[in-house]
Amino acid sequence: MDVSLIISNFLNPPVLFFFLGMTAVFVKSDLEIPAPIPKLLSLYLLFAIGFKGGVELVKSGVTQEVVLTLLAAILMACIVPVYTFFILKWKLDTYDAAAIAATYGSISAVTFITASAFLSELGINFDGYMVAALALMESPAIIVGLILVNIFTVDEKREFSWPEVLQEAFLNSSVFLLVGSLIIGVLTGEHGWQVLEPFTQGLFYGVLTFFLLDMGLVAARRIKDLQKTGVFLILFAILIPIVNAGVGLVIAKIIGMPQGDSLLFAVLCASASYIAVPAAMRLTVPEANPSLYVSTALAVTFPFNIIVGIPLYQYGINLFWR
Fold it and tell me: By its UniProt entry, which Pfam families does this protein fall under (predicted)?
């Protein structure tokens, strides 16, 4: 593997600010970001990538390549929770296994954005409709996770409120804003992009960098929770992204995705949700322990992907896309 890819990725300002945030916690600095600001930054990032994705979708059109990519995204969002659930069932009860499986079946938009920045650094093109794939992979894992709980629990008194589940899966703020921005990008096209470009393009990396500073603070605070998870879940949180990315790359190769899109697809398959799915699981599967599915996704898988995972998946592409 080309170590320069890891070094290049590590030296990106957003990644370095992520570790600055972690360092602040480790050295017990009083650095704090007021609570409403990270929420505003995450909403901006979702709005910007959704809008850009819609504009790019108009440019590319709905071709066979686009349809196959979106179908592959839905397929991975449905099957990843299933096989990860059975792996996790070796050590965990049904509730925790289903919640973690749903977390790893869904995606991390920030990891996707970091991978986009990585591709831009390397000068590798990627298509904007990959944002549509991102949006489509957010919710199915929640539904699959809840179906697994229903099938494998024997407590007949336990009842789910399916309207609440579906509302949380498809209408939570992240999914709603992302899909809504995508649609507006499609409707306004190039004209809309020119009007909003100073806001959606010029500010983007600065906001991403500041957001990752906050993510570093949050991730470092979650590291203590890993003491409760044990070695099994820590290894799972490192190895399963590599497996998922490998499966994603095989699918990408079969359907003929170009290199840039393949990396983004692999990153989507390898990432884990630490916003939408935990919110849904906390509401619908209160028996599951949040310190397991949040800490593994945020304190292990997220930093692993942005430091080692993204260059590793690119290395695989460099080997097999020649």
Answer: Sbt_1
